[in-house]
Amino acid sequence: xxxxxxxxxxxxxxxxxxxxxxxxxxxxxxxxxxxxxxxxxxxxxxxxxxxxxxxxxxxxxxxxxxxxxxxxxxxxxxxxxxxxxxxxxxxxxxxxxxxxxxxxxxxxxxxxxxxxxxxxxxxxxxxxxxxxxxxxxxxxxxxxxxxxxxxxxxxxxxxxxxxxxxxxxxxxxxxxxxxxxxxxxxxxxxxxxxxxxxxxxxxxxxxxxxxxxxxxxxxxxxxxxxxxxxxxxxxxxxxxxxxxxxxxxxxxxxxxxxxxxxxxxxxxxxxxxxxxxxxxxxxxxxxxxxxxxxxxxxxxxxxxxxxxxxxxxxxxxxxxxxxxxxxxxxxxxxxxxxxxxxxxxxxxxxxxxxxxxxxxxxxxxxxxxxxxxxxxxxxxxxxxxxxxxxxxxxxxxxxxxxxxxxxxxxxxxxxxxxxxxxxxx
Amino acid sequence: xxxxxxxxxxxxxxxxxxxxxxxxxxxxxxxxxxxxxxxxxxxxxxxxxxxxxxxxxxxxxxxxxxxxxxxxxxxxxxxxxxxxxxxxxxxxxxxxxxxxxxxxxxxxxxxxxxxxxxxxxxxxxxxxxxxxxxxxxxxxxxxxxxxxxxxxxxxxxxxxxxxxxxxxxxxxxxxxxxxxxxxxxxxxxxxxxxxxxxxxxxxxxxxxxxxxxxxxxxxxxxxxxxxxxxxxxxxxxxxxxxxxxxxxxxxxxxxxxxxxxxxxxxxxxxxxxxxxxxxxxxxxxxxxxxxxxxxxxxxxxxxxxxxxxxxxxxxxxxxxxxxxxxxxxxxxxxxxxxxxxxxxxxxxxxxxxxxxxxxxxxxxxxxxxxxxxxxxxxxxxxxxxxxxxxxxxxxxxxxxxxxxxxxxxxxxxxxxxxxxxxxxxxxxxxxxxxxxxxxxxxxxxxxxxxxxxxxxxxxxxxxxxxxxxxxxxxxxxxxxxxxxxxxxxxxxxxxxxxxxxxxxxxxxxxxxxxxxxxxxxxxxxxxxxxxxxxxxxxxxxxxxxxxxxxxxxxxxxxxxxxxxxxxxxxxxxxxxxxxxxxxxxxxxxxxxxxxxxxxxxxxxxxxxxxxxxxxxxx
Lengths: 425, 618
Known about the structure:
The structure holds two protein chains of two kinds.
Chain A: H1 2-6, H2 14-35, H3 49-69, H4 72-77, H5 79-96, E1 98-100, E2 103-108, E3 113-114, H6 117-132, H7 142-160, H8 165-169, H9 174-180, H10 185-204, H11 206-227, H12 229-260, H13 263-272, H14 284-294, H15 307-310, H16 323-354, H17 359-383, H18 401-419
Antiparallel strand pairs in A: 1-2, 2-3
Helix pairs in contact in A: 2-3, 2-16, 3-18, 5-6, 6-7, 6-17, 6-18, 9-17, 10-11, 10-12, 11-12, 14-16, 16-17, 17-18
Chain B: H1 5-28, E1 42-47, E2 54-55, E3 61-73, H2 83-90, H3 94-107, E4 113-119, H4 121-130, E5 137-146, H5 153-156, E6 159-161, H6 164-169, E7 178-180, H7 183-187, H8 189-193, E8 197-203, E9 209-212, E10 228-230, H9 234-243, E11 249-255, E12 260-267, H10 280-289, H11 299-302, H12 312-321, E13 331-332, E14 336-338, E15 346-348, E16 357-358, H13 360-366, H14 369-381, H15 386-398, H16 421-427, H17 452-463, E17 467-468, E18 474-477, E19 490-491, H18 499-511, E20 528-534, E21 542-549, E22 556-562, H19 572-585, H20 591-599, H21 603-617
Parallel strand pairs in B: 2-10
Antiparallel strand pairs in B: 1-8, 2-3, 3-4, 3-5, 6-7, 8-9, 10-18, 11-12, 11-22, 13-16, 14-15, 17-19, 20-21, 21-22
Helix pairs in contact in B: 9-19, 12-14, 13-18
């Protein structure tokens, strides 16, 4: 305790801090490459995006210090309050929000804008950690499951209504956290089956998927009739029920896809599934980003030498598509280094989370690992053309102050919690 | 599996999937790893240097460049404009404007097309200032060839757009670029062309140019082509073309002391300016498809004909070298030469000596067939077998540059034919052939074939008394030394001492009152020459003449070939003597002869032939 009182850095995990600064540094180099123009060569130029990003990076230092200044206990104690306040900020958007790129996700402060949804992630993680670490909490109980779901559902719905469904999707990451803390496995099974049926319905059409699942149902039924006659008596209801629910789901997917989704969403899926090929308008981004990454080859074109990057062939290559620059200018080697850096970073968070004595800290650590993981997977998966176009930033890489600060808060709250791991509190 | 392991497992799984995908994209699938300077992000533009000029030996400009300014249009980039102002600038009516605009739009809205071709220089200077007001229009500068003299298209050649085969062979060229395809334009393509400049421009995803690629470190400046001075004397060339009007054939004149080609005439000819500009392809196919008079064939270089009597010079020299005749040994001619016992083994002779002794000198100026048949036969029969004799003779002939390519800087040529022992072995596989089998070779008739330039070169070798320089067309390229092969003399296999008596005979062709070209004699110039009449089984005989002058220290050697020109002294002789006179004196003292040649026409003869051929075909 004495150390903690004199030194706010006492006990923090320097490996995570190192990863953080490495990712930010490499990310900034790529933003610089994406937004450099021929006219000015000065690095400190605040009219350019790389200049602004440098300001955000510098301003994240006081934020880090502020987070480290508070006691770990403070965050646990006020987790609910923080959560509620953050919900208020989300609701406030519908009153005074600013619309950028079709989504009312911003508060406009004149000189700069803030996107509250980037900070809400930390609040939700705190709230979930608080809820799950309560003494009587048991994820096998349906009421407790509902509580957890509600905490996630409210902000996800508010964000979807902005509309920014990509950011809302991140909250599905918490299923890993809840599973880790005892959520029955069949939730994950159901999730995967649902995802499988969803893709299959889009790919083969709902009629074939329905027929396919019906055949599967008959085969399973036959198996039980022939070999497991005893189990059949108890189980046929269950099996039929599962089949009926699946059939219903297939129908609803078909309905939702055709009637609820907007055309742009449908296009994104169709392109990815290879059902339509369009490299000019709607498929342009994905096509260009794949070509750009491929043209990097083994060693890449070199820093500031990627002509597709310098020619701005990939739109938004300083934000969502920043990984294309890594691909083109640093090649396969550079891309793998970045991916491994993320893997080390994520695994370290998990490792640190597992060593926590406090359940609150562990759940919180797990939550941010899941959040970072989701961002990492969806963003890079989209850029290299194996996931549909969902616009969410690559942590620490993509240009943008809100995202950077949001991720910084997310990480350093955990570093703060971890610094107190050896004390009872 | 422990619950805590799931997320870690997924992290590693996703990383493996990502790395595999990147491995596939960036390493296995190399269809996108295009070379840096060839990708769609970098635009390459070229700056074309001016093509070199071509001058004649006296500095007269033969080929120059003319600039042509075309107004180009990209219809979809055209913004509303002040049409009245624009039309006034271009000096067109509004109806014209609408018509041209519609035409361009029909062609393509994105690809540039020519709106108004070939503006004058003064219009261009004025327009250039105003063009920025009219979006979607721009001016491009094209360089076209220009021929100030309507002369020598066969020598100068022409340039045309490269085709895909040329691009494959030489990746320096791109579609739409120009390349020499005939004449000097092709043999000196690299000299004339210069080096094009390259500019790399970075583009963004809208294809908008956003500045030089890497600040222009790869860019180069164009290097202009070099000018070329030809060996041609344009006055002599034009004179030769005028003399050959309405006659088919070729004239080749060479300076014996250097091998420089002074004139290279092939008729019928055409105006080289026809192959320039918008009418080019129309005119070209017209020339190309004219298979009757065949204007694109260079008869001076590509016409293979039996040389006829001029070849007797070589027969005599070979016989002298082999010591089978002397300058004083004689034969008697009774209107022909009997070379066998058969009824048809008799070669007629028109020398008209009626049995009086004929020695070398007289044999040459009277062109006695019997004498040379005798000399040829003796040359070959000197050796134990006809085969050996044939090869000896053949090598003597070949040493005059006959029977093979001259290997010079002209874009076309023919080998001609000088037979040797192998040739007759193939021809007569089952019999022991002898000298008499090929007796017509003696008088340039049999199997021997030559081109006019080979004959001219042979004449030059005689004029030089035993050596020649490879005939060539380029005299000088700025700062560059002429290829050594044009400056080293090539010696014939005949000793110098044997030339003088033969040259005396050639001199008498003009000087002796009974010489075959005595009435082409020119006062004040000592011309040596030899008439020739090549028998033509397809129609009227060809008229041939070789000559050089002056007799001592010769300045010009010439061969003239006139298709279906009856006999040597009828057309070829006078033309040769007029050419020599023109070159040495500048003008003729026999204007009546000149007029006769200018106005003389063989068209009737050619038409007759054409009629005959059509009749046969019918």
